[in-house]
Write a structure and sequence with these properties.
The protein is an all-alpha fold and about 120 residues long. It is about 60% helix and about 0% strand.
């Protein structure tokens, strides 16, 4: 069996090819698996907090980021992506916060424009 990686931060051509295939399979699975299959993932229990559209978007982004990590050897963006989606899912799981995000807190006549930080 061959090695998947050569020098630090590099990945062999066969590993990249297989990685792209895995990414494509993930995208296809996201479109065709029943929601119950995705929701039963023990590794990512917070996916239950996302609606079907956002779960599909997560899988698409995960697959693309995974493929990029295979190409460049930088796995941090994949960790960042999972962390950001998990935070989003947990926020959406909070009923009070979800209501706040769904509705404007103030009528537009009471809003005050804030300057952008430089």
């Amino acid at each position: 069996m061959g090695r998947a990686s050569g020098a630090a931060g590099t990945t062999s051509a066969p590993a990249r090819t297989h990685g792209r295939r895995v990414a494509a399979l993930l995208r296809a699975a996201a479109r065709s698996l029943p929601p119950s299959a995705v929701l039963s993932l023990k590794e990512l229990p917070w996916l239950r907090q996302l609606d079907a559209e956002n779960r599909s978007l997560f899988v698409e982004e995960y697959a693309a980021t995974y493929a990029a990590a295979l190409e460049n050897g930088d796995w941090q963006p994949l960790d960042d992506l999972v962390g950001e989606w998990q935070a989003t899912a947990e926020a959406l799981g909070d009923e009070g916060l979800r209501e706040l995000l769904a509705h404007d807190a103030l009528p537009s006549s009471e809003r005050v424009p804030l300057p952008y930080p430089e």
